[in-house]
């Protein structure tokens, strides 16, 4: 792909005291791409997301969005067009699903303090537009029917999707998802895979952290593998899953089991492709 990447990290390092959590990590995310970030526990994946979203200021290196350097300020990064979800769900439990999404929408609104103080017509129009867009997004993620439920009463999988709707409410160019299928059953995981394809179709590029490699390899155009804070391998799912260093480092298998693992993944993917074709899968499936 040519042109300026939508998101680029160059030589990002993050040192906590004596611990180097990230060492000169690079990432290039192109328009329309779904990129997977995998690696063992403690590899630095969430730290990297924190550096991309301004929560941490990298010790060294830069992060740019369409060529412009991003500030070390999470709110400003959101306004610039990078949204994220967290590994641990961070909803407002006593608010409804709709209210949670409207909160995300507010980061996009340009209401001045006087408008909100006097609740004038401009304020009311803005609030109505935020509500309408939030309802649309709830429909998009499959939660329209429960928009009035308190978020704490929603099943776990729905809470994860609600977080995605709230992130989308900020109108991002890039969406970062930290373990979006953690704790989900296979049906919910598949629904999430389809949702991410649908998000890409709306023009949002996506980076996904996930431990479920089957999910990552069947979802992503490009996969980066972090091990001990360093980029070990990157490339297409085929390149990455066939790399013995990945299987050995990531799955902790001794070399003589590597070949069996590679065969296992290849077989599973072949089976999966067949199911999708029988079901007449979407465009996203065929990528
Ligand atoms: N704020 C912090 N202060 C000190 N050390 C930190 C901080 N945040 C992360 N670390 C350390 O950085 C390393 C990378 O952690 P990180 O959470 O980024 O890994 P991860 O790949 O996301 O792991 P997991 O898959 O378990 O979520 C770990 O050794 C962790 O203890």
Task: Quickly describe the structure.
GO terms for molecular function: ATP binding; ATP hydrolysis activity; L-isoleucine transmembrane transporter activity; L-phenylalanine transmembrane transporter activity; L-valine transmembrane transporter activity. With 287 residues, the protein is of the alpha/beta class. It has helices spanning 45-52, 74-80, 97-106, 113-118, 121-140, 156-168, 186-201, 213-219, 237-241, 244-251, 255-279, and strands at 7-16, 19-29, 34-38, 60-65, 68-69, 82-84, 174-178, 205-209, 222-227, 230-235.
Class from secondary-structure proportions: alpha/beta
Mean pLDDT: 85
Attached small molecules: adenosine-5'-triphosphate
Number of DSSP helical runs:
11
The share of residues in extended strands comes to 15-25%
Please give the share of residues in helix: 40-55%
Show unreliable segments: 272-287
Give a count of the beta strands, DSSP E runs of length 2 or more: 10
What is the global morphology? globular
State Rg: 20 Å
Q: How would you spell out the order of helices and strands?
A: EEEHEEHEHHHHEHEHEEHHH
What's the end-to-end separation, in Å? 15 Å
Give the strand line-up of the largest sheet: 6-7-8-3-9-10
The main β sheet shows up as: 6 strands, mixed
Keywords: ATP-binding, Nucleotide-binding, Transport
Protein name: Branched-chain amino acid transport system ATP-binding protein
GO molecular function, one term: L-valine transmembrane transporter activity
GO biological process, one term: L-alanine transport
